[in-house]
Amino acid sequence: MTAQELYSQFVDLLQKEDKGKAVQLVLEKLESGELDILTLYSEILTPAQNGLVCWQDDSLCIWREHVRTSIVRTVLECCYPYVVKEIPKYRVANGEKVIIGCPSEEYHEIGARMVADYFTLLGFHVTFVGANTPQSEIMNAIAHVKPKIVGISVSNFYNLVAAGKIVGSLARIRKEEDLDFRIVVGGNAFRLNPKAHENIGADAVLQTFGDLKRYAGEVLQR
Ligand code: B12
After folding, report:
1. 128: enclosing H helix or E strand
2. What is the pTM of this model?
3. H-run or E-run covering 20
């Protein structure tokens, strides 16, 4: 079965809100080796999520978006053993630490969650602080974890201001306390605004697994 066929089957199950069969389909394909994590994330789950469109007058759409996202979230969590199993295929790091999170009021978490798994595949130790995390808590996590990379995910354009404040504070403590970490950003808000990462002072904007792998290789070689 091609990735395109699997995508169609998966979206059909999402539309029927059949969580059991959606999870089963993915796990069977991963177990048989017909599917790998990168194909699943980039060619099936990401387009399935980003293909969701709600029109303003559709009262059935938003709550259904919640249901579908929750099914995708379950699929992601069930896949974690396969993420761990595939680390030897992609490893560039040796347990160096990464923190991934989203600013306050940013409730879109699937992109951030996938990126956390991308870093795991690359051999990093990942601390996923998740959606809607206050700036003070992100700072507390950094003081405790002492990461090599901090990743901030922003989907909604309006949360770029909050992301900018976090990046500004991160850059300040990095300088004041002579810490050695990179600040990377990603997500829909940066895809639509190609200069935004420069304006808020992030070290890099990354979106795909390929971007991450190349950047991680450069950071670790320094
Ligand atoms: C699902 C969804 C929701 C769900 C989210 C549930 C959840 N728990 O995550 C719910 C229903 C809650 C929701 C709510 C809202 N949403 Co919404 N949502 C979406 C939708 C359809 C899919 C998002 C998604 O899951 N994508 C899948 C992931 C895997 O893709 P991704 O985020 O692009 O991530 C990839 C890369 O960008 C990258 N990446 C992501 N983050 C990072 C971080 C780093 C560090 C790196 C390196 C890489 C990286 O890696 C990922 C894998 O490839 C998008 C559509 C879209 N095109 O984005 C709208 C969208 C993001 N939502 C939108 C809006 C407007 C809203 C609401 C304001 C709607 C409303 N009126 O209430 C609220 C806001 C909530 C809030 N305060 O955050 C707009 C945002 C537009 C804008 N202003 O910028 C979008 C674009 C829809 C649209 N076309 O209008 N939403």
Report:
1. strand 125-130
2. 0.96
3. helix 19-32
Give tens-digit pLDDT for 117-137: 999 999 999 999 999 999 999
Tokens read off for 152? 């901030």
Residue with the smallest CA separation from ligand 1 atom 49 is 186
pLDDT at 99: 98
Atom of ligand 1 nearest to the CA of 212: 47
55 pLDDT higher than 80:
no
Q: Where are the domains of the chain?
A: 3-85, 89-221
First to last CA, the chain: 42
Query: What's the CA gap between 170 and 182, in Å, rounded?
Result: 9
For residue 155, the CA-to-ligand 1 centroid distance in Å is: 4
- CB of 66 sitting under 6 A from ligand 1: yes
Residue with tokens 């304006």: 199
Q: What CATH number belongs to 89-221? A: 3.40.50.280
* Token code pair at residue 99: 């923190």
Q: Which two tokens stand for residue 120?
A: 């795991």
